[in-house]
Specification:
With 400 residues, the chain is an alpha/beta fold. 27% of the residues lie in helices and 29% in strands. It contains ten helices and 20 strands. The strands form four sheets. Strands 7, 10, 11, 12, 13, 14, 15, 16, 17 and 20 form a ten-stranded mixed sheet that branches. Strands 3-2-1-4-5-6 form a six-stranded parallel sheet, with helices on both faces. A hairpin with a 4-residue loop joins β15 and β16.
């Protein structure tokens, strides 16, 4: 049994709290930090379960001495590096929420710090832990499908205006001088990009290294960062990756990922189903059921003793390079003109839709194109960024 604590008791942290207590043979939730100024359902839940609730992080770390093994850090993106270092300095291992950090320099500093303290950080890209992803990855690495040539993904998702009012970092590029880079690429659909990079490498336990990145980042909502993106990545092994996504869609579709190999095509959809079509026409369907967060926590617990995590921090370096390259490529996030937007009441909030975005995403996906390459009136073309040796964001003049 691994003894854990969680920093936070609201939002996503509450989801983890509820799932952790469902695994009494694997995990023991010792304590949580909960901001007393916030009305947190997780705090009430923990108090009812007899789980210690601390009102400040320093107090949590002091209380946990000798009582816990791991601290989960499902906190705002801009706090990941600082809080992970703080937990490691106090002697704890860290399971870190995705995305691990916002910038490559933060990643490298955090990795070096953890190694200096003899600690291993696991990253909670929950879908990378799923049996379906691990099965596809194993078959790719074994050469069952031949060489991976191209991977393309799309997702039509929705986020209402109140989504961006829930915290001071939502929809932000920076907060108090710290990078956030919130948006489709680095937050809600980060799982989709992480999966693509993972599938693009034929090496077990590796993500593909981005060599070139070209990206178009847009916003339909009144935010700083992006909510709509179109990204092309060329990996060091010449695999092409396409990522087209929006949080301003009319309908909810995907994620849909197509993995094109020399001997097979894999259609991976909604993080829970895959259809494999081999070159001889034979097909295989794989599905997964159950809660993927619970599955992730089980695998993390099983890997704690030997530290052989499926998703260690160092494996995720290509992901952060891809995110930084996307922002560098576009130079700035472009606002979609009002005439191309439609806003209307949706429950107690406002829904923002980019007109025609659902069709555009499908067209770009089917044709493996960026938005500007399929005659989109509001699109802006972008430059290709060479990522070899990339060590600091920003390096190519990105501006907020």
């Amino acid at each position: 049994m691994v003894k854990i604590a969680i920093i936070g008791a609201g939002g996503y942290a509450y989801h983890l709290i509820k799932r952790a207590v469902e695994l009494p043979e694997k995990l023991k939730l010792v304590a949580v930090y909960s901001n007393p100024a916030r009305d947190s359902a997780g705090r009430t839940f923990c108090m009812e379960k007899g789980i210690e609730v601390l009102p400040d992080i320093d107090g949590l770390l002091e209380y946990l001495s000798g009582k816990a093994d791991v601290i989960l850090v499902p906190t705002p993106i801009n706090t990941h590096a600082k809080l992970s270092k703080k937990c490691i300095e106090a002697g704890f291992a860290v399971w870190l929420e995705k995305p691990p950090v916002a910038t490559i320099q933060e990643h490298d500093e955090l990795q070096k710090f953890a190694e200096s303290k003899g600690k291993c950080i696991a990253v909670m890209f929950q879908n990378l832990y799923s049996d379906i992803v691990q099965t596809i990855k194993a078959d790719i690495s074994a050469g069952r499908f031949g060489q991976v040539k191209r991977i393309k993904s799309m997702a039509c998702w929705q986020r209402l205006d109140d989504y961006y009012g829930r915290s001071n970092w939502a929809g932000k590029i920076r907060v108090d001088g710290d990078w956030v880079l919130d948006g489709t690429v680095n937050n809600p659909l980060a799982h989709m990009l992480a999966n693509e990079l993972y599938f693009a490498s034929m090496q077990p336990g590796k993500m593909a290294e981005p060599a070139k990145v070209q990206a178009e980042l847009y916003r339909g909502h009144c935010i700083e960062s992006e909510d709509t993106s179109s990204v092309r990545i060329e990996t060091a092994d010449k695999v092409e990756i396409l990522f087209n996504a929006s949080l301003c869609s009319e309908s909810q579709t995907g994620p849909l990922t197509t993995i094109e190999c020399t001997k097979a095509t894999i259609e991976y959809s909604n993080f829970n189903e895959a259809l494999i079509t081999l070159e001889n026409g034979k097909t295989q369907r794989i599905t997964v059921n159950g809660d993927q967060r619970i599955n992730m926590l089980e695998k993390l617990a099983d890997s704690f003793e030997n530290k052989n995590y499926l998703v260690p921090l160092d494996m995720c370096r290509p992901f952060t390079i891809a995110v930084n390259g996307a922002f560098e490529s576009c130079g700035t996030v472009h606002a979609v003109e009002e005439k191309y937007l439609r806003k209307y009441d949706h429950g107690d909030s406002i829904k923002t839709v980019i007109k025609g975005i659902d069709h555009l995403l499908r067209t770009a996906h089917d044709n493996a194109k960026l938005f500007s390459e399929v005659s989109t009136p509001w699109s802006k073309s972008s430059k290709i960024i060479e990522m070899n040796g990339y060590k600091k964001f920003p390096s190519f003049g990105f501006r907020c």
